[in-house]
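Hi L.,

You mentioned the student needs an example of a multi-chain input paired with its predicted structure. This one should do, with 678 residues in total across all chains.
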Amino acid sequence: MDQKEILENLSMAIIEGDEDKAKEYANEVLQNKIDPLKAVEQGLSKGMVTLGERFEKGEVFLPDFLIAADAFNVAIELLKPAMEAQKKQVVKAGTVLIGTVNGDVHGIGKNIVAIVLEANGFGVVDIGVDNPSLKFIEEAQKVKADVIGLSSLMTTTMPAQKEVIDILKEMDFRKKYFVIVGGGPVTKEWADKIGADGYAGSAFQAVEVIKKLLSQKKMAD
Amino acid sequence: MINFLDVYERAIKGPIMSEKDFDMKVFIPRLKNVVKAYGIQYDKETPVPSDDKAADNLYKAAVDFLSQVGVYCQNTNRIIQFTQKEILEAVREAPGKCFVGEGKEAGVFGMRKPDERKVPWLHVGSGIVTTSEEMATNKIEGYASIAELNSISIPALDSIRGIPVLAGSPAEIYAAIRGVKVGREALKRAGRPGLPIMNLISTAAAAVTTIAASAPQFGLRPTDGWLCGAISEMKIDFGTMNKVAYLLNWGANIGAETSPILGGYCGGAAGTAVVSTAYILMGLLVQKGNYQLSFPIHFKYGCCTTRDVLWTVSASCQAASRNIPMPVIWLGYIAGGPNTKMYFYEATAYLLCAVASGAPSVQTPHPAKAVKVDGFTPMECIFGVDMAKAASQVNRQQANELVMRLLEKYESQIETAPSGSRYQDCYDVVSGKPGEDYAQLYDEVREELARMGIPLT
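Structure written out for the whole complex:
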């Protein structure tokens, strides 16, 4: 098996969510002394991105994505020591702190966004559901987040998205983080009204919006 | 049947596990296995199937699934488990009817079977947020002017004295109490004070809000309908369980509210149909529902009118109405908004699908995915009632043919569906009458649908 074939198989193992095969080809990467970072980028991440495209088209569903994410993590764990030995690490595209806002216990949409962001190279810190507004800010400080993602599935919890932005302003932290909002009842108009930096109607829109925001920031820096 | 304290005891003594493990190691693999073992298959050419054996097989799959998976309690991180024997016992003992309303509006909400020509229980209105008390009053009076309706949902207020309503906050309690007072007052003005309000309290994130607004001086009664929602998928929390505990002690009608998500943890249509049916069993066992409000929904599009969701609704509605004596209100979320042709095409497809499949009740399909503030008018209510009556004269096979033709009209536009007009933009807010444009559009669409062979009278 040559390098190209091993990386393709690794990618396919992720698409199929096959943990055993992901382990097998990650070991092949190590035995054949293939650059582990290359294996992550051209094998594992490529597989997740392909799966993401199929998910967006409605060809696969959330369970396929979650199972693939598990296979992805198993392979990463195997490759990690080799990357550390070579003093290499996957460069994260940015860190996103994500959670469902105060009073809202619905987490599925937020979970999908978190997985898709991870698959696209972002560091993701998921703080779960029903979070007090201040917690978003405290946690964002702790993990040095670039972006705060606020999810809401109910019209009555949408004001909590505004509350987080208002508190950021009050604490003089507004410029420190990009804030994007999403969830069933949330619209672009709402995002604009409350002063969010971005709105994402789907997990893939979230990736695009965050990439755009971070690249603008880089240019400004 | 096991009682609610037994359920609570299981919530504090059942097997412990993290929520992620429940999703990944219990829910997803066991659902996959059940779908495979029972050979549940989605057929995109038949959004309204007519196979009784397949419906009964789906019911058996749902019983098996619930017994294998249980219901996860988010507060205790434990699984509330039921044996197949307990599930079947709950089904056997379910009354299959619910007594609602007062005085001349009192009624019995009961069952229907697929292809049955009985008009379903007509549930009208929505909990869609509205911006002022005046508009809420006008809308409710508009809904209540429909003579045939059996029960009603009232809108929610988005603020109180200009203060936005935050979930679980004192403002939520103020808005809920104000909202129900406005609702009952509007029904009195319409001459129908006894009509049961069946979406209480649709916006209450906290149990304390429901309990506070239920005090009799605010105008609500145990003969109204009180919603207790499950959390997708197959989860519950103490917030909902607290509402159940209170409502059972009060003797009020409990509406078990459930919304399986197609494309989420359920996977595709086959898995979602199993979960949708299992939720009705859960409604009997966990929420102790007297009726159910069910709305399977598409994860990506946020509506119920994609082909695969229509199949899910039809299949699970048939499985339930043939086997589970639980009166279910089937509610459709529509992508198109008020004052658009798309709304009427989608609403027609949904109502034909649900009613022909044996829906005991259908609610006015909610325009613009129910997220547009003031995006709901009495016109959709009038249409919903007329179409539900027409759909009751259509069998499953005929419904399938009509739904296929309607899908041709709207399916490709679901992603970019027009959100339509707000109430104040297409209605005269003083007289409560539709504007000329909307009235004309309504007549045109109605004629077009009648020409398709839908028996609108």
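You could point out the following to them. Chain A has a mean pLDDT of 90. Chain A has two domains: 3-85, 95-220.

Best wishes,
N.
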